[in-house]
Design goal:
This protein is globular. It contains 17 helices and 2 strands. The chain is mainly α and about 425 residues long. Helix 8 runs antiparallel to helix 9 and helix 9 crosses helix 10. A two-stranded antiparallel ribbon has the order 1-2. It has one domain.
Amino acid sequence: MSQLTAEQWRSNLDTIAHNPAMSEDNVRLRPGALDAPSTTLVAVGIVGLAVTIAGGFVFNLKHALAAYEVGVVSVTAISLGAMFWIMIMHLVNSGWTGTVRRQFENIMMMLPVCIAMLAVIVVIEFVKGGVLLTWLGIDPATDPLLEKKTWFLNPTFWIVRFVIYATVWMVLASTLWRNSTLQDETGDRFLSNKSRFTSAWGMMAFALTLAFFAFDFLMAMDYRFFSTMWGVYYFANAALAAIAGTILVLCILRSMGRLTGLVTTEHTHDMGKLLFGFTVFWAYIAFSQYFLIWYSNIPEETAWYVNRQTGGWENLGGLIILGHFILPFLVLLLRDVKRSMVGVALVSVWILAFIVLDFVYAIRPMVYVRDMADAKPGPAGWWLDLAGVVGVMGIWWGLLLRRVGLGPLVAVHDPRLMEALTHKNDV
């Protein structure tokens, strides 16, 4: 598009503007259209968090914080995954995504909410001297393994890292969002080039911050455990969750009579293929991590899985294998499912549920582990786990729906919109 003359570009904009699919009624919601479901979800979320807080006082603070953190790392994964996909779209100059990218952007811009929720965890962990992150309350001199990691696992550096993660994510998200929305107003096609430049350096910054975030907030719950694949494992869930989340938003908008002719069966098919591909990718990473740890047979690594093969957690592990991979893999093999908005939306709900269960599997067993040689995890108190997840998810989804209704549902002056409007899937 940068090779077009100014006159040719204006001609393209005029052609796009006169396309029937770009009518105001099709690319915008009426004011307040999503206020009712948004308010309901936020209210449900507030009740869920209130129950979680009460459970922390009367039942178990560690358990309540674990339930809350499952929800927070899940929604953070969706938002971070959306940012990844936006940068990929810019880097590869993807044409067909012109009509779906705005909803990825809306999900990405929920990152401030995610960061605020994560900050709550940071404050609680720091003030309490380690709740789930037990290393915060242990004298390194009493544990040789922790002593070797003190240069990295110390409160000051941990908080500094969190500030770095939050800053990088906000800079990337705000820059990409500003370029996209400013292009809506001005029609400046060169803003896409700026987003592409941001994505070039941003992808490396994203990869590093996401990996170390996963180390700090998930892997470090057991400071003795280590896995070089843990960052990729969290990324696999994040990329998959973002696709599933965006499909759900698009399905809601289509059910309201919007995006007709903009998000077609062809776009749905491509989104379904991405959903299928990253379902397989997650399984590949999950198996590879397990296989390498099983093969090396290092106590500090294998103990993590041993603790999840007792106390009922082995049943959840088997369920995740079935529900996170085998069933969606078989269903998404069907071309008709991938080409059906309702079909991929139902699969997306299923996948998101199992991504949450995957984080339950990672976090929840740590609640009752006192020592790796005396592990006592157990699936008691599921009502508190449900309250924590529902609380976070309700608020996040409620605020997301409100954001979706505030502006155009597509990037109305995206240089690739012409290609997206005529997209045809040949596979």
